[in-house]
Amino acid sequence: MESFKNKKPIALPTDTVYGIFYPIGERNKQYINEIKNSPPNKFISVMFASVEQATPYLKLSNQHLSLISANLPGHATIIVKTSDLGKEMFEQKTVGVRIPSTKDAKQLVEFLEEHGPMFASSANLSGNKALNTRREIIKEFENEIYVPMLKRPKTSIRNPESSLMIDLTSGGFDIIRHGKA
User: Considering the entire predicted model, what is its pTM?
Assistant: First the structure.
């Protein structure tokens, strides 16, 4: 898969919906929000290739690690507190952790293994439904993001639905968004 073209965010299919990915950095997080017409400081999750890649950036109790290991990779976003390294890297005290299923998003996982964790957001304008095809994304975002042709093009995601979102930062288990789990 071709890397970032002209330093633009990249759109790739995940195991739930198409996502927009950009390397970690405050300006890149703001740019994702800007092109999506989201508030400038809107929370953005981070997509990791594996639990092992994610853990150095997270402040996890044994219970949280067990919950993450049981549900990821998979169709969930789990919000946890960041470690000192995570705070420095993401410039956030909390982070939404997404690890896609390798069965459904093998090329994305390979991309994340090669390039490292990425800020990730669904490919849609703020408040609109997630876009489901490469063609829809190109039409909506024109020249703002790069949408590569994949080796085995997955032109449409079957039954697209955002991931389940769970918040563990308050000590409990709070469902923030129902979705595909």
Answer: 0.84
Picking from 171, 57, 178, 154, the residue whose alpha carbon sits closest to that of residue 105 is 154
Determine the Cα–Cα distance for residues 119 and 100; give it in Å rounded to an integer: 14
| Beta strands 45-47; 94-98: pairing state | parallel
Residue in 34, 29, 42, 26 with CA at minimum distance from that of residue 88: 26
The Cα 99–Cα 88 span in angstroms is 21
> Which residue ranges form the domains of the chain, and what is each CATH number?
10-177 (3.90.870.10)
Provide the pLDDT for residue 153. 45
As a residue count, the chain comes to 181
Distances (CA, A) of 102 to 99, 111, 114, 136: 9, 11, 15, 24
For the CA atoms of the chain, what is the radius of gyration? 15
Distance CA 1, CA 84 (A): 32
Residue 131 has a pLDDT of 85
Helices and strands in the chain, H and E counts: 6, 9
Using the predicted structure, report yes or no on whether residue 157 has a pLDDT greater than 90.
Answer: no
Nearest one of 124, 154, 172 to 1, comparing CA atoms = 154
